[in-house]
Structures are given as structure tokens and as C-alpha cells.
Amino acid sequence: MVSIRGSARVRRAREHIGETGLEPILQLNPADYTAWEIARELGQEDWETADNACRKFPKNYQVWQHRRVLLSKRVSGEEHQDSATSTALLGAQELAFLDALLEDPENAKNYHLYSHRQWLIRQPQLVSEELLWREWNITTPRQLGHDPLNNSAWQHRWAVLNELRRRGCFQSDRDAFAEQLAQNTSWPPIPEYLRACRALLTDKDSGEQSSRDETGEPNETSSTI
């Protein structure tokens, strides 16, 4: 088995990966940056390998970085010319893949998985407004309902909030779900999150706040700031 360490072995590693593929080296060291780079250089970028690597090594940074490279190529059209519809479908499939991984309790707070998900929601070609609202109204409430102390889920909710606002589709001045959860959970970071939300959502310099609640429906009790 070839271990890729140092430039002296790069040529041999390239030959080895070209002959046997990436899988044998992943079994030895899935965090080997050079191995992933060589695999991409040789065009070994199949989704089956990427899926299996994320399932086997979900807490390894390199497997998620590789996945982002593949997705970025699809979006940019380097891999092949996608229509907007097929690219959006790819984003929906990616979220479904991540949802399946989150069902494993070992991944409930997986920093790398959530970091990838946060990267994903910031790609409007991949994640539509509808899918973004699903993250806000379904995904994060489900995760935080299971465990209100899940810091990774709170960070993701904050990222979703900021992306909704960046796209101009979050018009509420509050996070009603977090406020409700705070009434039943005594954990200091939740009030801190709520204070940050209020500061963000009532910032007059951040844009006009319309009279709609966070689901996008008209709210007669809210005022325009």
C-alpha cells in the first residue's frame, strides 16, 4: 500500500491511484489531502465514491471538501452543462443525502456535516428559496426539538437566517420558534442567540422590515421599521 507523504512519493502515488483507484488509500488514510487532489486530477470524481466516503468517514474534512469540489463543478458547468432545473434537483438531492446522515445519532452534532450544509444553502443555484425555508421551518426545528443543546444546529439556524435575509425573503423581526424553545429550556446560549436575532432583525440599517411573519404570511401586528 502506498502512503502519500512528501513530494518524493507523489509520482508513485499518482501511478498507484491510477491503477487501483482511490478506495484503497482512503482505507489507509481518508484525510490524505494529496490523494484526493491526485484523484481529482485523474478524473476519479464519481459520486458513488464521494457518497461512500461521507458515510464511512463523516467526521473527516477532506471527504466534505471533495464533495464541495464536485458540486461546484456541476454548478459552474465544468463537468457538463446543466439546466437550472437539474442543478436545483442536485441541491435537493444533496440535502436529502445530508438528512439521511443526520438520522445517525453520531452525526447529530457533526461539525463538518453542518459546515457543508451551511456552504450548500449559500449556493442559490442549488438551494432554492423553498428549500431554504424548509431548513428554517422543518430541519432546524426538528434537530433542536431532539436536542435543544445542539450547538451545531443553532449555528446552522443562524446561517439559514442570514441567508434568508441576504436573499431578501425574511421579513419578520423575531424567531418565534427559538422564543418558544427558550421558555422550556434553561440554557444560556439560547437567550444569547435571541439577543443576537433581535439585534440583527431590528437593525434599521439592514433594510426595511415588512409587515409579514417569518413564514411569509401577512402579519397585521408587525410594523414596518
TrEMBL record:
Pfam families: PPTA. It comes from Cyanidiococcus yangmingshanensis. Belongs to the protein prenyltransferase subunit alpha family. InterPro entries: Prenyl_trans_a. Keywords: Magnesium, Prenyltransferase, Repeat, Transferase. PROSITE patterns: PFTA (PS51147). Residues 204-225 are annotated as: Disordered. Its EC number is 2.5.1.58, 2.5.1.59. This is Protein farnesyltransferase/geranylgeranyltransferase type-1 subunit alpha. Its cofactor is Mg(2+). GO terms for molecular function: CAAX-protein geranylgeranyltransferase activity; protein farnesyltransferase activity. It is an enzyme of class 2 (transferase). GO terms for cellular component: CAAX-protein geranylgeranyltransferase complex; protein farnesyltransferase complex. Residues 204-215 have a biased composition (Basic and acidic residues).
